[in-house]
Design a protein that fits this description.
- The structure is a single chain.
- This protein is of the alpha/beta class and 103 residues long.
- The chain has one domain: Rossmann fold (3-Layer(aba) Sandwich).
- The protein is built from three helices and five strands; from the N terminus they run E-H-E-H-E-H-E-E.
- A five-stranded mixed β-sheet has the order 3-2-1-4-5, with helices on one face.
């Protein structure tokens, strides 16, 4: 398996699902993608923190869609089959999992 490091210019238009999006690594990933022009489905259990992150990112080149939920890999598989997501970032999993829908 190879790992590709993506720069800000290559994040424009990317569609991602990020769990644990209300704080820590999840929130950082949401900020990075939205500010680089990506479309992010930001998933977390804390509605208030998602709302704050959404306000913070208003006017960013990308888009953040908040979703209050507890997501699983099954949900990512369903989103991938529908062609919605490019990547899943799940920093709260046992190990950081980045799933590429094209593989």
């Amino acid at each position: 398996m190879s790992v590709e490091v993506l720069g800000p210019e290559s994040l424009q238009g990317i569609r991602a699902v990020i769990t644990g999006a209300s704080s820590g690594l999840g929130a950082h990933a949401v900020r990075r993608l939205a500010r680089s022009g990506g479309c992010v489905l930001a998933v977390a259990r804390r509605t208030d923190r998602l709302a704050g992150l959404e306000r913070e990112l208003e006017g960013s080149p990308g888009r953040m869609l908040p979703w209050t939920a507890d997501i699983t890999e099954d949900a990512h598989a369903r989103l991938s089959r529908q062609g919605w997501t490019t990547i899943l970032i799940a920093p709260l999993a046992r190990a950081l999992k980045v799933a590429n829908a094209s593989s």
